[in-house]
Amino acid sequence: MCKRTNKCLYAASFAFYMIIYYLSTGYENILVCNGEGNGTPLSHIHSASTLQLKPKNVFLDNDTGDIYVFNQVK
Fold first, then answer.
1. What is the pLDDT of residues 22-73, one digit of tens each?
2. How many domains does the chain have?
3. Residue 67 CB contacts under 8 Å (≥ 6 apart), including other chains
4. pLDDT at position 69
5. Residues whose CB falls within 8 Å of the CB of residue 66, separated by 6 or more in sequence, listed in order
6. Is 74 among the domain residues?
């Protein structure tokens, strides 16, 4: 609500990190499929099975925080 109304908000600890998460993911629930949900380095992306990648699953690079989605067309 604070984002939609452009009002100030003081958030510490857990609340602060939740706001960062929701703003960076666009309020979508994402499921990390590598590293048991913790991610792995990007160099392990070639060992990821396409069978475990479903439409909402992502590959998380735990070094940079970047997320990658499998595109079946390409």
1. 777 776 777 888 878 788 888 888 777 665 667 778 888 888 888 888 777 7
2. 1
3. 30, 32, 58, 59, 60, 61
4. 81
5. 42, 60
6. no
Residue 39 has phi, psi (to 5 degrees) of 85, 165
Task: Tell me how many degrees the CA angle 70-67-34 measures, rounded to the nearest 5.
Answer: 75
Contact 61, 39 (CB under 8 A): yes
Q: By the 8 A CB rule, do 32 and 58 touch?
A: yes
Residue 51 placed within a domain: yes
Sheet strands (E) in 23-65: 31-32, 57-60
- Domain of residue 34: give its range: 2-68
- Whether the full predicted model's pTM is greater than 0.90, yes or no, is no
Amino acid present at 53: L
* Both structure tokens of 5: 């109304």
In a domain? residue 9: yes
